[in-house]
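Appendix B. Chain record.
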Amino acid sequence: MLGLEETIAVGPFRVELATSRLSRNGVELELRPRAFRALKVLIQNPGRLVEYEQLIREAWDGTHVSKHTVNVTIGEIKDVLEEYGAWINCRPKFGYSLEIPKSDDLIRRGWHFWNQYTRAGFGSALNCFQQAAELDSADFRAFEGISSTYLMLAGFEMCAPRDIHTAFFEANHRAEALAGRLTPEVRLDRAFALCLFEKRMVESEAEALAVLQQKPKMVHAYIRLALIYLSNSRLDDARDMMLRAVATDALAPELTFLQSVIALYRREFDEAVERGKDTVDLHPGLQVGRAFYAQALEFAGQPEEAMVQYRLASSMSPDTPWISAQEARCLASYGHSGEAQQILDHLQRTRQSVYLDAYQLALLLEALGRRDEAFQEFERAYEENSYGLLFLDVDAKADSLRGDPRFLGLRNRVFAGTGLD
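Structure tokens predicted for this chain:
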């Protein structure tokens, strides 16, 4: 029997026995006290049949109630658990059991790795989710994790979107089929994928807004909408969505560095520095946030401090070469061409075995004064469907290229059919 002080993890839920609180991904759920006590009895007896008599004795303190009352109460619990309500199985005339899939430990381990926001972390997460799918091919969460990891690999420029486009949608649709419905999490991933992989901006926004209407406390819905608006050059809308996200969960890791990104694209460089400093203070191990902080320092006219942060971010995540590319671009921009060239040579060797986003390499080549080569990389980025290209209109790193007719031609091809062309 578990002690009252314990907090129990059940899938995406946290059950706090002492305070009778139930939450899902940080959002508290409403469950009346009697129903919470019935849920606690099931959780304390995982995989075992809990007969009606035991439920009544422990959840109702032995007060005589009918089996119908018990059934109604369990029904309430299943409704609150939504798609996870299927984990509670009924044995007619006997009682109920909570059947947690054997893949649960792998699923939770996968999300732990996922939240590291590194190439190695995403690789380990994908491995866990794939093992979970092999262990229990009916567990929709394994396929949700697989699709979400593919999405992050593309979104953080760690894998060519062209190469994982199909794999994402196959896993995402499989998750929906197994869950028996389109869950908010699966739908939100699909909404963002419509933007990232297919540039279907109108549909992407509509789907994300539908998720937000369904789950107004879902912080990642605000974050994804902010990113969708950024790719549409709707900077005011992106900032407004970010502020709503802050009001929901100001400490979400993605949100902390998104604030810096939005300020960068709005050319509010001093604000970007402040938000970047907040990111490294709150999440010092988050190398992506540190890289954006470095970029903010660079454009705020603090190159020496920027170099320090770029080097730290690169050393923290040597398997994320776009960070090194940004470091080299900064070096070249401030006259350190020799050091920048050394990093470029290393990146060119590295890309033989590790994906390097061609968009970032193009910006580095432009900083080195090699514009023709830069446009060759832009073409490669276009062929690979680079996520970075969606920010051509707002990225200050591309400002020096805007007067070149080739840049306008590239920009028009990227946004053809999106409403931004």
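Further analysis of this model is presented in Appendix C.
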